[in-house]
């Protein structure tokens, strides 16, 4: 454990967050997400909710202000406009924790997978609520 | 996720529990334990308590009945007879969950490290209670 | 060996089943199937029938309910409508063991190979009955 | 599958049997044996009995005639003279299948482990009968 | 060395023959063939003729009866209809040793290379006779 | 770059600091130190002073309070009692930045090397001042 | 440290500069640049400015005189003609240090990324000034 | 060193020359050539002229007689018909040392790079004369 | 194949012979020798006699003249003074082919194994004559 | 090639010289030296004399002034006091090129090997003069 760094951030996850640069994506995925087959680096945080992971990551990761949608969730299959409870919770955390709060955008399930395949890394959590997935694009920290 | 298998057991940890044989040791370690430098396989379960991990592991792992002490904790430095709260919780879980309940034995801190260095694997949890470490020796399952 | 987990499930196969996510495919293949050249992870269970492997896997793996055909067999070359004995046995096992029983779909031999090449893993069994091959798509486990 | 070679002999096991030379040991181990932690190459044949594996291996492997005890089993802990049923079955197979039938020798459990640690390979079977372990020393084939 | 298995079949080559499945190709190549640059697994048998290797392989490998041409040689550059002595010798061995004797088919030099690049493996022999190359497609062994 | 984490801490160094446990050592070394040949993980921070690195590390790393000397420098060869300027600067930083300020202990040059060889990692800085080396022992963070 | 070689040039960076040939590109990137995801070799020089790194590299690296634009910077997003202070500093260094001084060319942000993806290596510096990125093409040294 | 083999041929280069087959290319490159970024195997012979390397290689390597141009040099940029001194020296060596002397062909600089990218290997010499690059295609050795 | 180099010398074996230096040992072993378990590099030449391999190696390898016994064979178990036919053939080849002919020395079987374990490499041949093993120590080639 | 760095210093050798620290040894070895079996990193400079390599290395490497003998050669076997011509040439180069000229010390052949086994690296040159071996200990560069 380290001083002032959330203990949920494992050594591998800290490495990834620090090595990512402007415009790189990271996926926080629920327990059912096919994270290993995405091809990207896969960090596991079994047993932890996606909302706890999002809170921890946003304390250190800046969001990208060069694009309109730096945070994207997965649409419910067959009902793209519904907002599942876990997604509502994501929005609350982004509003309160992100350096630059934004409204969450969304992608259809297989479009979300395609985007995830080119991400820098996927964090597989133990989130048991369905649709507990979110993609974050890293921003810059100025001089 | 799989049917009937505790979701805390990650792919790597399941591999280890299944590959271990009679007499192999596994260490469940707290967040301050020097797990990486033990040399053994190190599986991380950041953010989860050692007691939750112990419960999950004992649902699948048989304890060794060929030895008197198949479950061993670390003694408090300078006060070897005290029973820290997390150790008391370990004892309760072993009593209720293990296939063969036993009284926990204990080892001095550096003797515990030496034993851990020859273990099959160490599971580093997010346990924040000090002395949240326990070694389990795997038993056999008969015909 | 572990408590309550079918001993046919080897360490590597358990790892794979646990790491797979929603929509990932696994192939159970007979002894003549070109499993190594598919490119996917290949786990061998020489000497065991494909039906025994199917039974063991379905005790832990949920089938995908988002698609109409989560279980697919290979058509007999030159006679696509015949149902070989091993396939009939597959259907019986799916009916009795799967979380969501379904009617097996089928693919022409080389279409089956193409599908297998993008699978998460192939399990090569010792099945000596011809056409003893089946693809399963993993489902989700709800909150 | 290959013509005239027992299908139980997997690609990795065939490699090992062919690569072994005069005096190299191979261990056939039961399902509870700590095979992975022996350090040697570990080949798994989950779900197959040790007796079936012994029969298959002896059809291709010559036993060493330079030493008095080329085949060794593990003694029952606390009762070294008893002959468990699986060991009796081993003796029958050696008598009928080996190129040079011999009486099985035996070693105490931890001496057996020490010998196994310097073996060329360990084959972990699905043998559920306790003490289903045997070490074979490879012999020569003359001009 | 092993009982009843031709000693020319090295550990790596045995592994390959056993791991190949229905429809996988293996190339037996002469000493001048660009085996390493084909990309496939390359097993070397320097100093041995391609005809000796063909004989040894056909004692264990079934030919594919699902295709008309499971055995293919390379055409002489500029004279595709001539039958070089080593090819005539290949035909004699196939006639006498294969489980299902067939007439050898042939491919133009660069078509032969393209086919070899997708093979399971190439065996580079010490064959000094030009055009001493043949591709074999593995068949099935029934129940 | 990350919010609130000193940018000098590279991805690999953050990984190491987070993966270290109670009692693990890390060495901050000057530009002339034989870091690569110590055998431990070697992280390079060429061009940065050892004092800047010490400040950054102590903002996140707790010092071990179980031992009397959690911070150790190298003695000047031939003059063990002298305090080089860079060591004086180290003491000031420890006094102001460490969670538990301590007086620096010291070791003879080759004893320092022996201690470094069993460290978790060495950070090679660009420090050009001679004797700019210090070993830190990680402490615990309580519940 | 070595005689007459700038100490900022780390072992890995020296290897890269020496191994590069005529026409190979190297990218000097600021602290926000997505260097790891470019795919090229990534050398880190955390904590050092891009201008210091440029000066050190140009003391040993010849610029390519076969192309008109051997040194290229990234255009400001939305304002391609502005010259940020760090780019002005780059131009001064090139004028005074390069073997063949040239006027810096520029590329749009994503064109710059595409060019960086085919570079020989990327050096990630600790440069905190935005747009502190430059690509250099290596030239030849005559007989 | 070995009897009768030119000592310039290093272990890795000998391996490559022996493993190459009919039609495989090898590039002998000057000190400025971008050998590492070609992707092929790269063997370095720093400090030796390309002409010395050509002489050594041709004592063991047969040239391909199936193609009209088994030896190809790089054209001078902007003056494709000029013959640089090092190329003239190459022609003399081919005339006197090759098993089948041929007139050197030539390729434009970037066509030469494309051809080199599909070569079996590149040998980077210390040749300081510009345009000291040549591609050789290996031939066959008959029975 | 290469001009003037015996085709039995495979790419890996040529690499080894060229990389060996003064005083390094190479073992030529028969088909029953436990070559893989010696730990050294193992090159296979299945199907070729040890005498053919010895002849080919001695055409390029100088024997060490700094020691009295640069060539050593294995004594027959139980009859150390007998000279098996293959050893007599070895002596003839050394007499006629080595740069410095010597009388073969001999070692007891397990002493021979110990010597082989520290060799640079072992060449496993297809030699079927028992005791077809010989160790050669490489010499120097003067200016 | 790089500006102002001797072209004999290859990428790997430059890496090594830069990564070495105070007290690390590097061996420059002749063409007969058993460099590969020393265990250390082995860099080859086939075809170049040891004296040329020594000159190039000493232009960048400082010698250790903390020990009396930072440069050591190998004694002639059987005549330890003779000074071979290549050693005399080494002394001249050290006198003229080293930052701190010293008289060469010497070690008996096998003591020299033992010292070389713990070196940071060995550079195998093409030096054909016998006894063309020298060990250099790296020194420090002050502030």
Low-confidence runs of chain A: none
CATH architecture of chain A: 3-Layer(aba) Sandwich
- Class based on secondary structure composition and strand pairing of chain A: alpha/beta
CATH third-level topology of chain A: RbsD-like fold
Estimated helix fraction of chain A: 25-40%
In a nutshell, what does this entry contain?
The structure is a homodecamer of 143-residue chains. With 143 residues, the first copy, chain A, is α/β, with parallel strands linked by helices. Chain A has helices at 11-19, 50-58, 85-97, 109-117, and strands spanning 25-29, 41-45, 71-74, 105-107, 121-125, 134-137.
Q: Explain this structure to me?
A:
The structure is a homodecamer of 143-residue chains. By secondary structure, the first copy, chain A, is α/β, with parallel strands linked by helices. Chain A has one domain: RbsD-like fold. Helices cover 28% and strands 18% of the residues of chain A. A six-stranded mixed beta sheet of chain A has the order 2-5-1-6-3-4. In chain A, helix 3 (85-97) links the parallel strand 3 and strand 4. Chains A and F meet through helix 1 of A and helix 1 of F. Chains A, B, C, D, E, F, G, H, I, J: InterPro entries: RbsD-like_sf (IPR023750), RbsD/FucU_mutarotase (IPR050443), RbsD_FucU (IPR007721).
Notable characteristics:
alpha/beta, RbsD-like fold, 143 residues
Which helices and strands appear, and what pairs or packs with what?
Ten copies of one chain form a homodecamer.
Chain A: H1 11-19, E1 25-29, E2 41-45, H2 50-58, E3 71-74, H3 85-97, E4 105-107, H4 109-117, E5 121-125, E6 134-137
Parallel strand pairs in A: 1-5, 2-5, 3-4
Antiparallel strand pairs in A: 1-6, 3-6
Helix pairs in contact in A: 2-3
């Amino acid at each position: 454990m380290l001083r002032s760094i959330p203990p949920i951030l494992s050594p591998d996850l800290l490495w990834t967050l620090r090595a990512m640069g402007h415009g790189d994506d990271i996926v926080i995925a629920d327990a059912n997400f096919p994270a290993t087959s995405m091809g990207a680096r896969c960090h596991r945080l079994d047993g932890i909710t996606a909302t706890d992971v999002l809170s921890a990551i946003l304390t250190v990761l800046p969001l990208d202000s060069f694009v309109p949608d730096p945070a994207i969730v997965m649409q419910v299959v067959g009902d793209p406009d519904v907002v599942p409870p876990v997604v509502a919770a994501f929005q609350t955390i982004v509003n309160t924790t992100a350096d630059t709060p934004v409204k969450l955008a969304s992608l259809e399930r297989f479009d979300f997978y395609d985007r995830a395949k080119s991400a820098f890394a996927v964090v597989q959590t133990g989130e048991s609520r369905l649709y507990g997935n979110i993609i974050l694009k890293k921003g810059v920290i100025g001089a």
